[in-house]
Design a protein that fits this description.
With 411 residues, the chain is mostly helical. Helices cover 78% and strands 0% of the residues. The protein is built from 18 helices and no strands. The protein has helices spanning 2-25, 30-68, 71-86, 95-108, 112-129, 138-148, 156-164, 174-195, 203-224, 228-256, 261-278, 280-295, 298-312, 323-328, 333-347, 352-363, 367-377, 386-409. It is globular, with a radius of gyration of 22 Å. The protein starts with a helix and ends with a helix.
């Protein structure tokens, strides 16, 4: 429903602005420009979707090997000591615990098709323990905030889109994105822990959070010690080496499990192909709406106004061109994806704005969509402080994304 209003709003605002330009400035060509923009956007959306089939099939093929090779189960076992402390209200050994671990692990590996069913299963199992069937329980809130923070180890789709949009090195945003999503998760979880009076000084949690903070600080120190022109080179090298090692690890895991690695890859590749074809109408719809919004001058009006306000207080303004992606992300994943692609197409995939939009897209998840789907599945009406915690995580992810992109890519 939110996406419906956003999409209609693009057309209504564009029409009103176009009409005002005709009446007050005599710009008779504005509607021609807007129509040309819609045709060009539709063509671009189709070309991007078709171009995605190869890369998306490749990555989802490897992901399917990892999934069948037991990587998700392995991550669940490794994370068990941490998650048992983050969900103290769940009885030990309850089925919901396993579903939660599997959902988070699937999200970390960017396995959306596996994560959503597991998440719905976890919500239904948590609802069985919930005393007030219309109010979100503590474990539910922690679960939603963890999902909304968008913790991802392998941002497959972001790299695929960057490759399709002509990025010289699609993986160069990998390390900045990982830092931003860690920051979002860290802030969201700490907020919920404070609200639920979970002991943050517990040795396991302290080690987990301290490890994340130490890692982020170490990366920041390392980046600041390098000349600016070498930062992107080393970041890309680390990212590509890490991703290649993950692919090899998935294959080794599959061989150890004695699965048919080739068949697993083919099954995953088929899913990738279907996914790429399936998103064509959604991508075209969103890109057309955004193109119309941009051609009318509405988007420029917003970004230039924001840039002026930010610049007037002496702050850098280069991040403003990518900011529409950050605004859209809590509302709509496809809307944010359209904004990201529009930014890369307008400014270039390797521009500061193009890279920052990519990091914005991957640093958090679609808060309101998640809340609607997961709470709607179990008829929860009182979300308590779920939205506050999720939006706080979103804000942390956005601020971290801006900071790390200036750190890694300058401007």
């Amino acid at each position: 429903m939110v996406l419906n209003y956003i999409w209609i709003g693009f057309f209504v605002i564009a029409f009103v602005i176009g009409l005002c330009k005709v009446i007050f400035t005599g710009d008779l060509g504005i509607f021609t420009e807007m129509m040309n923009a819609t045709f060009a956007a539709a063509k671009t959306g189709f070309e991007i979707s078709i171009g995605l089939t190869g890369v998306l099939s490749l990555w989802l093929g490897f992901m399917k090997i990892g999934e069948r090779g037991g990587v998700i189960n392995f991550l669940s076992r490794v994370s068990s000591p941490v998650f048992s402390r983050l969900f103290p209200d769940l009885p030990k050994g309850h089925p919901a615990t396993g579903s939660i671990f599997m959902n988070i692990a699937a999200n970390m590996l960017n396995l959306d098709n596996a994560a959503t069913p597991l998440g719905l299963k976890a919500m239904k199992e948590m609802q069985e323990l919930n005393q007030d069937k219309e109010s979100a329980s503590n474990p539910m809130i922690m679960f939603i905030v963890l999902n909304a923070s968008g913790l991802t180890l392998i941002p497959v789709t972001i790299m695929v889109y960057r490759a399709q949009m002509g990025a010289a090195n699609p993986a160069d945003v990998f390390v900045p994105l990982m830092i931003a999503t860690f920051a979002a998760t860290l802030v969201g979880v700490i907020y919920v822990c404070i609200k639920q009076r979970i002991n943050l000084l517990d040795k396991v949690l302290l080690g987990f959070f301290g490890g994340i903070i130490a890692f982020i600080l170490l990366v920041v120190w390392w980046v600041r010690s390098l000349p600016q022109e070498e930062v992107s080179v080393y970041s890309s090298l680390v990212a590509n080496c890490f991703l290649f090692c993950i692919i090899i690890a998935f294959i080794i895991a599959g061989v150890r499990k004695k699965i048919n690695v080739y068949d697993a890859f083919i099954d995953g590749a088929k899913e990738g192909f279907k996914t790429a074809i399936m998103i064509i109408p959604y991508l075209i719809a969103m890109l057309v709406g955004i193109a119309l919004f941009r051609a009318s001058g509405a988007l420029s009006f917003i970004t230039e106004g924001l840039a002026y306000a930010v610049g007037s207080i002496g702050l850098p303004t280069e991040w403003v061109d990518a900011f529409p992606t950050a605004i859209m992300k809590p509302l709509s994943g496809s809307g944010a994806r359209g904004m990201m692609l529009d930014t890369m197409q307008t400014f270039g995939a390797d521009s500061f704005a193009g890279r920052l939009a990519s990091v914005f897209q991957g640093s958090t998840d679609t808060t309101f969509y998640l809340i609607a789907v997961y709470y709607g599945a179990v008829n929860i009406k009182n979300t308590r402080y779920t939205i506050a915690g999720s939006l706080l995580a979103d804000l942390a992810g956005v601020l971290a994304a801006i900071f790390v992109c200036y750190l890694f890519f300058g401007s």
